[in-house]
Amino acid sequence: MATVTSWVETLNAGETVVYPFVGTEWLWLLIAVVFWIAWHVKQSASETEENDELASKSKGPDDYKSNITNW
Amino acid sequence: MENELSALSTIFTEFYYWVTVVLMFLIHVGFCMYEVGVSRHKNHLHTLMKNTMLIPLVTVTWFFFGWWIYWAMVNGPWIGTSIMDGNSGLQLGGGFGANEWANPMSPIMGVNLGDHINGVFWAAFLLFSWTAASIVSGAVIERIRMSAFGILAIAIGSVFWTIDASWGWHFDGWMVKILGYHDAYASGVIHAVAGGFALGVLCVLGPRIGKFASDGTPRNIGPRNPWLVTVGIFLIYTGFWGFYAACNMPILDVGPEYGLDGTYFTATNIYATPTTLSGITFNFLMSLSGGLLMGYWVSKGDPFWTYSSGLAGIITASAGNDLYHPLQAMIIGMVGVYIAYKMHYWVERKFKIDDAVGAVAVHGYAGVVGLVICGFMLWGYPSSGYEGYAAINPIGMIIGAIIMFGLLGFLPGWIIAKVLNGMGKLRIPHEVELAGLDFNYMEAAKADEDAVAADQK
User: Which residues pair with B252 in a beta bridge?
Assistant: First the structure.
């Protein structure tokens, strides 16, 4: 439901908060916090997986040079 | 807004802070370029991503709780007493400057036709937070896990620098009132705290493989990209203009604030004491120049240190650059650079600390030196226009420097790094460090190149 349906009525009434779904800020905050924590968990797990896979290749300090592209 | 004049003043202030945010964005661009320029080829992308991803991590946590902390902690809590309402606990109400502004569910934390300041002020402080985290980022390149850095970035960017800003960079902060702490352009509240935090992390993280010879002699790890370093530092210099402007309030009538007869419109620093944008422009450029001159001299023309020393010159003079004479700012910048440079190599040799970009020296040591010098140079100046505040003094500033660098910088950095290290989550595996963090990316890119080349035959 729109917070503002008429600018004339809103401004005359002295309403200042104009974003949609006023009063549900707690819900958006909850979703954002859950996603934030999940991001860290996921990122850490994928980093561990990637590191383990790279470590298992046992590459030397100069091996990357053979992978430098020329394009 | 009641009339054209108040509307003009409000919109000007809103636009002023907005411009500072845009300028300060360049600091982060500069940090990214600088770090990549210093890192080795096999770590470029990881280095870039690490510094880039601190942007969203610090931003969302700054929205969740960082801004709340800044406005809530001015009394310690239970150390000082608010001049707003006599409260000594968490400052959760009490008028302008109270924490009710900063609750992430507050209607002022969004598009609100009755408020033109909170968002741009929030963003200006947020860009300081990015800087604090980015200072740490440079010191730890090429061996830290990105997940560990993300946690450390949030800790310094959205928690610890925020607490110190609430204590010592707020018109109602207890350090200003009780200690006479003065830090107009953040020698301590950004630079010393971030440098101290970086040092705490480095003590646990350890040096890069090969940084020290078996007899303990330090080595310079290259190769580096001098052009990325050059452009990066110049962008940081450029963004620093926005940083300085953002530390000011552009227009304030201090007459009714201080009980003067009539009005007195002026620009002020964060403590609402008068200064001028013109005056601090003198001091910014003179302290930059003093830093560059001393950096070139003491490093015998080393480009890396000369560029960093320009920054360290500004950082040293920043605590008092709202009041110094330009020649004082220049000489103070020179002194800070000399001490920071000597301290960097002494600490490196003595404690085997591998600070890859000299961040602890440029930000930490220079920031501490700046606070101490400010205590002597501005000894006796009022720390505030409000009644009952301690005057600026050397003891208060030295204690302030210890709080910034040690209590809120080094100590939490060391503790969090210890915990992460204990969980095996701080440092990348030895084999990955040898191969290079970008090895898989590079290998995939080479395979693509070979495949395309094969199709073109």
Answer: B266
Distance to chain A for B441, nearest Cα, Å: 9
Q: Which helix (H) or strand (E) holds B396?
A: helix B394-401
Q: What is the pTM of this model?
A: 0.96
CA gap B337, B371 in Å, rounded: 14
Neighboring chain B residues of A43 at a CB cutoff of 8 Å: 146-147, 150
Please answer yes or no on whether B446 and A66 come within 8 Å at the CB atom: yes
- Residue contacts between A and B (CB atoms, under 8 Å): 100
Parent domain of B82:
4-240+278-446
The pLDDT value recorded for residue B2 is: 74
Range of the domain at A48: 25-53
> How far apart are the CA of A12 and the nearest CA of chain B, in angstroms?
13
The total number of structural domains in chain A stands at: 1
Identity of the residue in B115, B147, B431 whose CB atom sits nearest the CB atom of A58: B431
Strand B249-253 relative to strand B265-268, pairing: antiparallel
Q: How far is A17 from chain B (nearest CA, A)?
A: 5
pLDDT for the residue numbered B100: 75
pLDDT of residue B96: 58
Mean pLDDT computed over B50-73? 96
CB contact (8 A) between residue A69 and residue B104? no
For residues B279-301, average pLDDT: 98
Q: b/e for B345-368, b at 16 or more Cβ within 10 A?
A: eebbeeeebbbbbbbbbbbbbbbb
